[in-house]
Amino acid sequence: MTTKNKKLMFLFKTKLKNKVKDNKQPTKNTSIIKPTLKLLNYKFFKWDKTTNQIMPTAYYSLVNIDHKDILIFFNKKIKRILKKYSIYSSNRDIKKIIYGLKHSCALTLAIKYKIRRRVKVFKVFGNSLKCPKTGLNLKIPTNF
Length: 144
Fold this sequence. Notes:
- The chain is mainly α.
- It is built from 5 helices and 2 strands, in the order H-H-E-E-H-H-H.
- It has one domain (31-144).
- The protein has helices at residues 3-15, 33-41, 67-85, 91-112, 118-125; strands at 45-48, 53-56.
- Strand 1 and strand 2 (53-56) form a beta hairpin.
- It is globular.
């Protein structure tokens, strides 16, 4: 584990209500640290040093492919996270990660179509980032 990841783990653990105590197993809420660190390493999120928060960022390697393929890629990521971590963590934590992935997808589409802001992307493609050619949406379940 790199020093950056160790610092992030420390910041996450101190912000959580239930902290790890005396080398015991981590509590239920700390399991959300692992997927968030993975998404930080894969450049879906970035760490904002001024506000000490995680912010979504564009995934630049997907800019040159079709709108449909970008949505398929992000749908797979969302499904994996829901399948793997919805059992271990609260819905609020998972919603934050999925919210970040949704906005990361919007920022990727903004760079692809040369739109300056993610708000305009949501105005052009709708809240579910619908593909105009195929009609494919970003599928986020409402009841998780």
